[in-house]
Amino acid sequence: MSWADAQPALASGAVDGQENPMSIFTAAKLHTVGQKHLTMWGYIADPLVFVVNKQVWESWTPADRELVRQAAIEAGQEQIAIARKGLIEPGQPLLKDIAAMGVQITHLSPAERDAFVKATRPVYDKWKNQIGADLVNQAEKAIAARKK
Fold this sequence. Notes:
Elements: H1 3-12, H2 22-27, E1 37-40, H3 54-59, H4 62-84, H5 93-100, E2 104-107, H6 110-131, H7 133-147
Parallel strand pairs: 1-2
Helix pairs in contact: 6-7
């Protein structure tokens, strides 16, 4: 759903929830369109996926490919920093700001988060079939490594 459609849908109650980084929650002022409850469920910062058409990629020199690859890595690192701003500092000032807007913030317990993980497991299986097990397995390994 586009943002142009999402905000009226949230405000009218046609859509009652959304999932976004906290920086989007505040930038889009989602507290003003009925989003008065927020659940922190401990997922990683939203990754950016950079995609280049295979034929275009192969038309570039190895040096150009490496430049693009490094630029994508740097952009991803910057996006992670932006997504985590106010959440990793002591006292999580961004969450305090959101709570001050009248939003109730819920932090899942480990057991509640595990139940969420189990309930969403079929999504992994679906995507393994659609985009390939290797890519999904790599993503899962990367996520597990970040938790250590």
